[in-house]
Amino acid sequence: MIGSSHRRTRTLRVAGVTTALTLAVYTVGLAHAVVYPKASTTGAYERYVIRVPNERKVATTRVEMTFPSDVRVSSFADVPGWTIEVTRDTAQRIVGAVWTGTLPPERFIELPFVAANPKTAGAITWPVIQTYADGERAEWTGPAGSKRPASSTTLSAAAATSSSGGGMNGIAIAALALAVVSLGLALRPRAAK
User: Fold this and answer.
1) pLDDT at residue 158 tops 90
2) Rounded mean pLDDT of the chain?
3) Segment 71-74 long-range contacts (CB within 8 Å, at least 24 positions apart)
């Protein structure tokens, strides 16, 4: 009976740690402004979405994006509660956008737009600046692997599109698989000594 109680306690501890790790992995993936899809086709017209979470204790009030010079942005979706100001160059090409509104803590917003991809394979980098009600700015403009990386989309000639959020679904599936394996190991019967 004591062995059974000990095993149950151990199982609950393992399950708790596994759940905490799963949530931590998923949260890290959401901790910055990300543009979806993460992969697309060269020359395609794509519906992109900037997903911006608010991980601070004050509201996000502004999201600013500069578009890469080889991407042709053509339109934006209306987002309830948010207004958009489009920036153009002297040739009237859309080069940036500023969304303003109120995003409370522990929420996220998705800001969609349509753009024509460049005709050459490679990566598109999407610099985003997030401003909070207290004036603090989070600049998601750094290189991959930095503390505040800019999101990027990989372009290839082959059809490599994914649905919005596909990368996060992969992380969630991997975390769930890890949790199931850990739970199975914790519940397996032990050989008597």
Assistant:
1) no
2) 81
3) 71/115, 71/116, 71/117, 71/118, 71/124, 72/115, 72/116, 73/97, 73/113, 73/114, 73/115, 74/45, 74/114, 74/115, 74/116
Query: What pLDDT sits at residue 170?
Result: 57
Query: In total, how many domains does the chain have?
Result: 1
Query: In Å, how far are 124, 170, 172, 175 from 19, measured between CA atoms?
Result: 34, 17, 12, 9
Q: Which domain holds residue 130?
A: 31-156
CA distance 175 to 25: 7
Strands in 54-145 per DSSP E? 60-66, 72-76, 83-88, 94-103, 108-116, 122-126, 128-132, 137-140
Residue 25 in domain: no
* Neighbour count for residue 35 (Cβ, 10 Å): 23
pLDDT at position 193: 55
CATH of the domain at 105: 2.60.40.2230
Residues 158-185 have a mean pLDDT of 57
**133: amino acid identity, one letter:** A
